[in-house]
Amino acid sequence: MLFICYDIKVKFNLKVIPLATEAKEDKSYDLTIVYDYKEHPDIISGRCDNCGNAHFKSSVKDTIFLRECRKCGMKKSI
Q1: Phi, psi torsion values for 59, nearest 5 degrees
Q2: d(C-alpha 24, C-alpha 1), whole Å
Q3: What is the model's pTM?
Q4: Would you state the pLDDT for residue 22?
Q5: Are 35 and 76 in contact (CB under 8 A)?
Q6: What φ, ψ does residue 63 adopt, rounded to 5°?
Q7: What local confidence, expressed as pLDDT, does residue 58 receive?
Q8: What is the pLDDT of residues 18-65, one digit of tens each?
Q9: Does residue 3 have a pLDDT over 60?
Q10: Distance between CA atoms of 14 and 3, rounded to whole angstroms?
């Protein structure tokens, strides 16, 4: 659902503001598995495939870059 708001000060300026009426549900990924980025690339670049969050914890160990979502905990090795 979208809410359309007209700016009174500036003519012909249209703002479209999405309303968050629907609750976002997590997809069915097993959060105990570390997914490989080559086999499971991001659906939306830079976002978690499970919850859509863009904040990650990053770590490097033995030349393996591990990215973990701060919201749901999904992990990918890049």
Answers
A1: -150, 150
A2: 14
A3: 0.63
A4: 46
A5: yes
A6: 60, 20
A7: 96
A8: 555 444 556 788 999 999 999 999 999 999 999 999 999 999 999 999
A9: no
A10: 11
- Alpha carbon distances (Å) from 15 to 8, 22, 36, 67, 77: 11, 21, 39, 35, 39
Contact, 51 vs 24, CB < 8 A? yes
CA atoms of 56 and 21, how far apart (whole Å)? 25
User: What's the one-letter identity of residue 46?
Assistant: G
Strand order in the sheet with 34-36: 34-36, 75-77, 64-69, 56-61
With CA atoms as reference, report the closest residue to 48 among 38, 59, 37.
37
Rg over CA atoms, the chain: 18
Selection from 47, 43, 38, 44 nearest residue 65 by Cα: 38
- Dihedral in degrees, nearest 10, Cα atoms 40, 46, 52, 53: 130
The structure tokens listed for 11 are 């003519």
Question: What's the one-letter identity of residue 5?
Answer: C
Angstrom distance (rounded) from CA 78 to CA 19: 34
